[in-house]
Every structure is written in C-alpha cells, then in structure tokens.
TrEMBL record:
<dbReference type="GO" id="GO:0055085">
    <property type="term" value="P:transmembrane transport"/>
</dbReference>
<comment type="similarity">
    <text>Belongs to the Gfo/Idh/MocA family.</text>
</comment>
<dbReference type="GO" id="GO:0050112">
    <property type="term" value="F:inositol 2-dehydrogenase (NAD+) activity"/>
</dbReference>
<dbReference type="Pfam" id="PF01408">
    <property type="entry name" value="GFO_IDH_MocA"/>
</dbReference>
<dbReference type="GO" id="GO:0000166">
    <property type="term" value="F:nucleotide binding"/>
</dbReference>
<keyword id="KW-0560">Oxidoreductase</keyword>
<protein>
    <submittedName>
        <fullName>Oxidoreductase domain-containing protein</fullName>
        <ecNumber>1.1.1.18</ecNumber>
    </submittedName>
</protein>
<dbReference type="InterPro" id="IPR036291">
    <property type="entry name" value="NAD(P)-bd_dom_sf"/>
</dbReference>
<feature type="domain" description="Periplasmic binding protein">
    <location>
        <begin position="364"/>
        <end position="474"/>
    </location>
</feature>
<dbReference type="Pfam" id="PF22725">
    <property type="entry name" value="GFO_IDH_MocA_C3"/>
</dbReference>
<dbReference type="InterPro" id="IPR000683">
    <property type="entry name" value="Gfo/Idh/MocA-like_OxRdtase_N"/>
</dbReference>
<dbReference type="InterPro" id="IPR055170">
    <property type="entry name" value="GFO_IDH_MocA-like_dom"/>
</dbReference>
<dbReference type="InterPro" id="IPR028082">
    <property type="entry name" value="Peripla_BP_I"/>
</dbReference>
<dbReference type="InterPro" id="IPR030827">
    <property type="entry name" value="Myo_inos_IolG"/>
</dbReference>
<feature type="domain" description="GFO/IDH/MocA-like oxidoreductase">
    <location>
        <begin position="127"/>
        <end position="246"/>
    </location>
</feature>
<dbReference type="Pfam" id="PF13407">
    <property type="entry name" value="Peripla_BP_4"/>
</dbReference>
<dbReference type="InterPro" id="IPR025997">
    <property type="entry name" value="SBP_2_dom"/>
</dbReference>
Length: 476
C-alpha cells in the first residue's frame, strides 16, 4: 500500500481524506494539523495516526504528503517534504507570490521528487473527455474555448482579504483549464472585472465578476466568465468549438431525472459547492497518477510548472484588472488625472531636495529601493512636513534592496487602489514590468533618481547629489 500523510484537517482536507481512504492502493497513514482536536478526530474516522509535522516528514512509512493546509504554508511544506524525499500533492496555489513559487520549485527540482498541484478540474471526467476527444481530432482544429465558472455564493470579506484576489483564488483554476484544453500558451490576455455581488468584496479591494479573453499563437481564442454568485448552484461548464464540430461539458446535477409536462421540461439544479461536487471531481485518477509517477512510469498530470504558469497569468491580469475596475470611475476624467500627475511631479521635486511624503491614508505610493541607505532615510524623515503643506498623502514602500520585492509591492499597491506612483527603482530593468502595469491601468507615475528601462515614456527626475552627500554626512 502507498501511505499518505495528510497535512491539514480542514474542509478540503476532509474531502481528500475520504478519497485517499476509498482508493484501493492508498492508505491514509496519518493526519497533521496545528489544531490537534481536528487532526485526532479526522484520523480516528479513518483509523489513521495523528502525527506532528516532523514525525510525518521523518517517518519512513510515509511515501507521500498531501498538503491541504493554509495557502501561506504551502511553499514551506513543499520544500520540507522535498528535502525528506516525499512525493507531494499540494492544493493550489503553491504561494501567492510568484518569486516565492519559483524559489520553491527550484528546491523540488533539486531533490527530484514528484509534485502535483491540485487543479481539480483537470480530473473532472467530463472535462478530460473534452480534452481527449479534441486530441483525437473529433472537432477538427480547435478555434474557440468558452469556460463558465460561477460559485453559488461569495466568500466572506475576511477570506477575500487574504485570498490574493479573485484571479489568484478562483480564476486560476480556469487559467489552468484553458492551458490544459488548448495545449498551448496564450500570447495575450485581456481582462475586465466589476464588483456587482457584494459591496464588502469591493471594500476589501477585490472584484467578484470578471470576463477574460486569451489569444493564442495559432489564432485560437478562449473566453473565461467568472462570478462569485450563482443562484442555481455550482455552475461549471465548458465549450470547445472547432472547425468540424463542438464539444460541450455541462454541470454535475443533483440528480439526472428530467420531468416533462404541459408546463415544460425541468431538471435538477447543479450540485452545490462542498463537498459533493468536489468529491465527484476528485476521481481515483489522482491517486493512480501519483502512484505511477512515484514508480517512474509517468509524469504528474499537473506539475509545479503548471501551477507557476497559472499563477503568472492570474497575477498579471489581476493587478491590471483590479486597478482598471477601480480607476474607471476615478481616472476617466482627464482633469482628475492631471491633478494627480501634478501632485506626483511636485512630490518628486520635493523628494529630490528634501524627501518623500508619508501619510497614514494611502493616495500616492513612493517606492524606494532600500531604506537602509542614508539618503532614502533622510528623504523619509524630512518629507512629512512638506507633504502636509502641499496636501499630498503618500505611503512609503521599502524595497529592502530586492527588485522582486519592489515589483511585488508595486503590483500589490495597484490592487489596493493607489492613485499615483513615485518610483525610485532598485534596478532599471527589473521593475519595468510593474511600471508597465501601472501605465496599462492608466495610473500616473514618475520615476526618481533612476529611470526605468521601458518602451513607454515615464516622467523622470534625477536626484540632487549634493543633498545626497549631505544626507550621508548627517545620517544618524
């Protein structure tokens, strides 16, 4: 038997426990969870052990770990399992930060262990049938894909705030499904989103309704329709149109009985969220592929690289889409945008001679490369008074000498609703992608001290070297 340690005894962990126990070749060896009451109860239900994390990792009887814990623990647990030579099945995503995901995958490759990412829709029998039928040429050349994904009800605002946004939490499944069905990478992605379902989601900085269009090098296109609300149940449909036909995968219904009468034809509603729909979609194929990969007979159906690619698409489109959704009402008026740009320019000029403004309520972001440097510290210390005088509210973001961190900070600031940006780049090349996203969202931006290597024009101000030297001398 193939023994699996389950890391996480929450809602999705309970679904996995049932599937591990029901598979003929796998055993739920142990359950690990910081909440020992949850772990003990779930372990007892399947005659398994309750282990600590270290016990599970060092136990030679554990052949694989299934990670169903909180998102922010995934990357650390993957690395720990890889170093102990365990096969790994991890719920999506690996992490919300793309750079952290890439670092984690390097560890997995170093220790050469199989890693599965739990994009469960790849294992849906209907969706897989669409894939195999298309590969067999049943509809000729695929030309367009439509994915509809609507949840029965929105998550609470508390969850939204830590989820990473709708695209990273929900649409990421559909980005993966589009890659899976089409078999090629998109060359362009366009997205628009709105807050229509729950005002609390918008107040948390998220959207709840989205349309995404992907275009491929072949000319084929895919459309993803997302909503956090579906009054009739868990709506998961897929339609692939080709030169010689059409393949459709419909919803899983509560039952398959249809009623025909004088008033028309009726059928049952789609299955609700948890756990029924997911239990149907988590077929024994998950376990079979895991077993075959550990034996060297197959590669993971959904690897860490697949997880990284889906997050990349979600990450880039989310920062652009969320900013566009918010800025549509704030920045469509040229006068408003011009006012903010003027404030940015004045703030940048102040920063050249005195410092950057810092205020509690964020309106404009000032991204610095490293506040450990005297000049940056001097700017921060001396700017508050000037900012108050000119009515500019700034939040200072410290890049801590890390270009990836500075990029991530800027992208997060877009999603939080920053209205303008002053950027002093840590590296002229490394932050250009974030600067491009800011401009794509039609948000005003200026660069300070260093310019950015970008094809788009960005207003730039050089720093005052005399003041910089004075700051170094006065530091402390």
């Amino acid at each position: 038997m193939f023994n699996i340690a389950l890391l996480g005894a929450g809602r999705i962990g309970q679904v996995h426990a049932a599937n591990i126990a029901s598979h003929g070749a796998t055993t739920l060896w142990s359950v690990v969870d910081p909440n020992q009451e949850f772990a003990t109860r779930l372990a007892a239900q399947y005659q398994a052990r309750q282990q600590s994390l270290n016990e599970a990792m060092t136990d030679p009887n554990v052949h694989a770990v299934l990670i169903a814990s909180a998102t922010d623990t995934h990357a650390d647990l993957i690395e720990m399992a890889a170093r102990h030579g365990k096969a790994i099945f991890c719920e999506k995503p690996v992490h919300l930060d793309l750079a952290r995901v890439r670092d984690c995958l390097k560890v997995v490759k170093e220790y050469d262990v199989p890693l599965f990412i739990g994009f469960n829709r790849r294992f849906d029998p209907q969706f897989r049938r669409v894939k195999t039928e298309a590969q067999a040429g049943r509809i000729g050349k695929p030309e367009s894909l439509l994915i509809i994904s609507r949840d029965p009800s929105p998550p609470p605002a508390e969850y939204v705030r830590v989820s990473g946004g709708m695209f990273r939490d929900m649409t990421i499944h559909d980005f993966d499904m589009a890659r899976f069905i089409m078999g090629e990478e998109p060359v362009s992605v366009y997205a628009q989103g709105s807050n229509l379902v729950d005002p609390a989601i918008g107040e948390a900085g998220d959207i709840d309704t989205a349309f995404i269009v992907l275009k491929y090098a072949s000319g084929a296109m895919a459309t993803i329709v997302n909503s956090r609300r579906s009054s009739y149940g868990y709506d998961q449909r897929l339609e692939l149109h080709g030169s010689e036909g059409l393949l459709c995968a419909g919803n899983i219904l509560e039952n398959q009985v249809q009623h025909y009468g004088k008033q028309g034809c009726t059928s049952a509603l789609p299955e609700h969220f948890f756990p029924a729909a997911l239990q149907i979609r988590f077929t024994p194929r998950n376990g079979n592929t895991l077993l075959r990969s550990c034996a060297g007979e197959a590669v993971p159906d959904c690897s860490g690289d697949d997880g990284e690619r889906a997050l990349y698409l979600a990450d880039k489109r989310w920062s652009h889409c969320a900013a566009s959704a918010r800025s549509s009402s704030k920045h469509n008026n040229p006068t408003q945008r011009d006012i903010i740009m003027k404030k940015l320019i004045v703030a940048a000029l102040i920063a050249m001679t005195s410092g950057a403004a810092l205020a509690e309520n964020e309106q404009i972001v000032f991204s610095t490369p490293n506040l450990a440097m005297p000049f940056e510290v001097h700017m921060q210390r001396t700017a508050v008074k000037a900012a108050k005088e000119m009515g500019v509210k700034l939040q200072v973001l410290d890049g801590q000498g890390s270009s990836p961190k500075q990029v991530a900070d800027l992208e997060n600031a877009i999603t939080r609703g920053a209205q303008g940006f002053i950027v002093s780049p840590n590296d002229v090349n490394a932050v250009s992608s974030a600067v491009d996203e800011i401009q794509d969202a039609k948000l005003p931006i200026v660069t300070l001290d260093r310019s950015v290597d970008s094809q788009k024009k960005v207003p730039h101000f050089g720093a005052n070297n005399y003041k910089g030297g004075q700051a170094v001398g006065d530091f402390g």
